[in-house]
Specification:
It is built from 13 helices and 17 strands. It is of the alpha/beta class. The chain has a 5-stranded parallel β-sheet with strand order 5-4-3-6-17. The protein has a 5-stranded parallel β-sheet with strand order 8-15-9-10-11. The chain has a 3-stranded antiparallel β-sheet with strand order 12-13-14, with no helix packed on it. The radius of gyration is 23 Å and the shape is globular.
Length: 377
Amino acid sequence: PFELNPTPFLEMAARIKAAGLDFVVSNVGGFFDPEAADRAIAEGKLDMVAMARAWISNPNYGELVYRGQKEDIVPCLRCNKCHGRSMRDVLTTVCSVNPKFGFEAVDRYLVTPVESSKNIAVIGGGPGGMRMALYLSDRGHKVTIFEAEAQLGGAIKHADYVDFKWTLRDYKAYLIRQVEKRGITVVLNTRITPSMVEGRYDAVIAAIGARPLIPDIPGVDGSNVTVATDAIIHSEKIGSNVVVIGGGEVGVETGMFLAQQGRNVTVIEMRDQLAADATFMHYRSMFQAAWEAIPSFHSVLNATAKRITEDCVTYTDKDGVEHAIPADSVILSVGMRAKSEEALAFYGTAERFYMVGDCKQPGTIQTTNRNVYATAM
């Protein structure tokens, strides 16, 4: 996703094709849009298009193209988890948007027949809530999504602001489009309470997500301190010298986004590398190349934040030596806490109650999709 051109190798293929050599020229890398593939061939840039991930995220890709259902093709996040889930789990291959990939052997035992159509409330219109609603609708249930905000999107709505989050933005648009296509009832700008759904539904699904963890650091409640997603959505409020506390994927992405806007950004991370939990195969090296290409992006590793003031952040290094970094804005990105208590407030409002996604256990798009698929089935 850090390559903003969806088909980055197409022009290389075009140069070979233009040389007039007696080759059949093919190109693999980024072709999902069937119209883009047709156009590349029609323009004489290549003879054929090759695809791999399109068929991982969409095992029925050929069927969708044959039927002209481009809008139903699930976008690939290009997260590379099909190459291995993480550095600690390189041999487990999964797909963030296709929960059945790598799971086919047991999937047939998981899916149970639908005995009767149920009236179901899904509380939360983020990626987990929308995906849950789609699975339930496809199984013949009547579904209503309740969302507190003015639009669907939840935890991934910040993707609208960041250029290199274009794959996540495409995925969000896909989910919203599919919710609309199925005619699923959506109630926006409504913060649902248990009394509002009690006794009205056969099942209630809580998909209300998680909230950012706030570390116990002196000064963390200062007016110059905010959390990562808010810093992205309201970047106009962020100062010139920025310190991001927490160098996981979200913290690094937030730092990159602000540095690209011209801020001087320093990310401090307790571990010995940034984005330590990012997908190890291919993805992390591309990620690192992207942040290293931004001159105003800096990092300090093996560092523990100790104090925040209105103009600096104090941290200790691995030897316990204290240092200070100038900062007029401080961004917190140290993890998420499930909204479990808020979700459990809906327990007993219907005959069946489930918690899915981040309000059950904070995770990723991939773990959320596995969770909601299993629950829906």
